[in-house]
């Protein structure tokens, strides 16, 4: 029951101010957020590479409210690419982006999109064009250093726009990845559409508060959907990225990959920084490609609250750390 309450709080400005100022917050946030600056995260990337792990780097932030913030997000990722260049890790260090941080969530007057009020209704709401214009240079810069970008999946209202941007980017950068969420009814169809040669798709359970009209609410139903989608991706010609910490789903993925005749480098596992870290190393030692989603930056609130919602024990730990400070 706590999960949905925490997810609702993740979008409240009042809660954001309260949580950010609470004593003990920094200590708990530090478990999931690798640092505040790119200088702090680069040694973590080096350390991960030394352990045979790969990374996908996320500059935290979402649902920005001004165009300046959208440009700042683009610049933060371009700066990250500059730092990655020196490491020479190629696609072993890729990036994940949330389009709502690149301007997708901004209202954008129809006039600027479609030639005035008499033009056709916009196909996508908000700052779709702005997000595409902002993310393109990041994808270009990533390709120039031999790596890639994956578009994270946010709440269901943003997904048509995300998939359209993904398709547009893939015309020039076919290796651009995207994320699909098992809890959504639409996702089996999306998986079929995205399972062709050259496509890179991360499958996750889904981390947002979604209504019963669009998403499974029951954990067992979500797990069953995840397996159905895994089967589609493994049987396809694309490159599945299995984003989960769930031991059962990891075992099922291994079995499905084996049955599909996939070699160890024809799919990969992905987990979040700070969660089941010993499992990251164990899977890599078994010869699997294991990528750690490593989030850093100062706008950590939304990301942090989703991590609390996934495991209520995290909330208890958080509350305890506030009391004992
Ligand atoms: P669960 O059943 O939730 O967890 C299995 C076990 O993992 C738990 O029993 C626990 O031991 C451990 N665990 C899981 N979460 C936590 C936690 N927060 N703290 C401590 N232990 C935990 N969601 C999106 O909606 N869009 C995205 O773009 C997206 N990208 C992701 C990228 C990666 C690499 C990963 C791993 C997840 C991503 N997610 C994303 C989040 C995802 O949707 C789930 O919310 C999250 O992964 C928890 O689901 P699970 O598969 O790990 O299974």
TrEMBL record:
Catalyzed chemical reaction(s): L-proline + a quinone = (S)-1-pyrroline-5-carboxylate + a quinol + H(+)
Pfam families: Pro_dh
Keywords of the record: FAD, Flavoprotein, Nucleotide-binding, Oxidoreductase, Proline metabolism
Protein name stated in the entry: proline dehydrogenase
Record Gene3D superfamilies: 3.20.20.220
Pathway: Amino-acid degradation; L-proline degradation into L-glutamate; L-glutamate from L-proline: step 1/2
Source superkingdom: Bacteria
InterPro entries in the record: FAD-linked_oxidoreductase-like, PRODH_bac_arc, Proline_DH_dom, Proline_oxidase
Cofactor: FAD
Annotated Proline dehydrogenase domain residues: 46-316
Top enzyme category: oxidoreductase
UniProt EC number: 1.5.5.2
């Amino acid at each position: 029951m706590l999960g949905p309450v925490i997810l609702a709080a993740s979008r409240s400005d009042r809660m954001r101010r309260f949580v950010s100022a609470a004593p003990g917050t920094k200590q708990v946030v530090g478990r999931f957020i690798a640092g505040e600056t790119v200088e702090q995260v680069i040694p973590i990337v080096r350390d991960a590479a030394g352990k045979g792990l790969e990374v996908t780097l996320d500059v935290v932030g979402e649902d920005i409210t001004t165009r300046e913030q959208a440009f700042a997000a683009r610049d933060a990722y371009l700066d990250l690419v500059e730092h990655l260049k020196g490491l020479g890790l190629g696609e072993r260090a890729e990036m994940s982006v949330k389009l709502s941080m690149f301007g997708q969530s901004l209202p954008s007057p129809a006039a600027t999109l479609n030639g005035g009020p008499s033009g056709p209704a916009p196909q996508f709401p908000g700052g779709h064009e702005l997000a595409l214009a902002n993310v393109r240079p990041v994808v270009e810069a990533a390709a120039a250093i031999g790596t890639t970008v994956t578009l994270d999946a946010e709440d269901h209202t943003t997904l048509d726009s995300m998939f359209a941007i993904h398709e547009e980017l893939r015309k020039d950068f076919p290796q651009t990845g995207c994320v699909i969420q098992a809890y959504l009814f639409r996702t089996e169809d999306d998986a079929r559409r995205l399972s062709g040669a050259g496509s890179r798709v991360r499958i996750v359970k889904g981390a947002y508060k979604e209504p019963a009209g669009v998403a499974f609410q029951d954990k067992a139903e979500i797990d069953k959907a995840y397996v159905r989608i895994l089967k589609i991706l493994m049987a396809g010609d694309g490159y599945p990225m299995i984003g989960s910490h769930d031991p059962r789903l990891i075992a099922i993925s291994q079995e499905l990959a084996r049955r599909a005749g996939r070699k160890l480098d024809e799919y990969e596992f992905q987990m979040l920084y700070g969660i089941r870290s010993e499992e990251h190393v164990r899977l890599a030692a078994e010869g699997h490609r294991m990528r750690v989603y490593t989030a850093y930056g100062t706008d950590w609130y939304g990301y942090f609250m989703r991590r609390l919602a996934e495991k209520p024990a995290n909330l208890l730990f958080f509350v305890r750390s506030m009391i004992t400070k």
